[in-house]
Amino acid sequence: MFHGTEPPVIGFVGPSGAGKTTLLERLLARWARSGWRVGVIKHAHHALRPDDPNTDTARLARAGAAAVRAAPWEEPWHAAVRRLVEQDPCLDWIVAEGYHAAPVVQILVVRDARDAAAERERARGWVVGVVAGGRGSQAGGVRAWTPADVAELAAFVA
Known about the structure:
- By secondary structure, this protein is α/β, with parallel strands linked by helices.
- It is 30% helix and 25% strand.
- The protein has five helices and seven strands, in the order βαβαβαββαββα.
- Strands 3-2-4-1-5-6-7 form a seven-stranded parallel sheet, with helices on both faces.
């Protein structure tokens, strides 16, 4: 467990439909089996549906997140982190999905490696890796994984 005021935050960012939530489901299941307590903030760019069991936040909770929070698009990332920590103060780290502007370590998730450069320009944090399917290997000098490399990515983040 993290013993500071807030646990570390790592961002997973990329365009809609790139597979961020699906990737996080697989990572969360692995982290939960290893005993990690990981919280997730889902930055929502649409109306929130808190009672819908098919939302991304419901999927992430079922996958093994210790705490999940849907943050409306206008909520700053640091406020969302604070609210998640209030919800569960015993998290090892927090994943922020979709907060491109958060000044945190970020992993880009794109469908095709050739899209990584454009997505990297949108990210405002410190990009440390790229998860990309498709063709090409243009990670731009950072670590690169495919969506099948869940074990390696999970270990890298942990």
